[in-house]
Amino acid sequence: MHICCGPCTIYPLKELRTQGHEITGVFYNPNIHPYQEYQKRRQTLSDYANKTFLNIIWPENYPLEEYLRAVAVLKEDERCAFCLRDRLVYTAELAILEKYDGFTTTLLYSKYQKHDLIREIGKNLSQQLGMFFYYQDFRAGWAEGVKISKELGMYRQPYCGCIYSEKQRFYK
Fold this sequence. Notes:
Blueprint: H1 10-18, E1 24-26, H2 35-52, E2 55-57, H3 64-72, H4 79-97, E3 102-103, H5 115-129, E4 132-133, H6 142-151, H7 163-170
Parallel strand pairs: 1-2, 3-4
């Protein structure tokens, strides 16, 4: 399961485990900027994973420069699709390499993400790569996940992650 952050992991993890799935998380998010934000989200997820016995695959590098180069040449309305696809491709290819049964993402939990686009990208990758994409609309558990994350004192980020979303959130 691709994981964007700790708080967004709570409900999908619970749901998937309740359904009998064994989950391994993948924290691949080269879009998150600045690096201190990336580190906060990584640490929050690490702490939560330790509490819930969730194995996480942590990529060794933080390819921010590659991400920024790729996004800089796109039209403004293409950047989110690129970002979502990049993270899901990484997860799906890792699932194939490690012989998992399928892949999914915590991005399907957030009411702020482009849900239909995430589902479409996942289904397209499933067809292209021959790896099952598990789709579930995890937004039904939004309030529950927020409540639990606050009770646990988790760091809750105020924007999606990229430099563009940071500007949208804070620049007035």
